[in-house]
Amino acid sequence: MLDADGLCHGCYRTGEEIAGWLRMSDEQRLYLMREVLPQRAPRKP
After folding, report:
1. pLDDT (tens digit, 9 = 90+) per residue, 19-41?
2. What is the C-alpha separation between 4 and 8, in angstroms, rounded?
């Protein structure tokens, strides 16, 4: 389920990233998981 910003509530990927997941290389997936998604996750106080 995507929020108002277009991000998945659980994994923080965009709809485009979710749709393209199977076409991504392992390196692209790792970059997304290690570098991009942690920056999108809400910060806990």
Report:
1. 999 999 999 999 999 999 999 98
2. 10
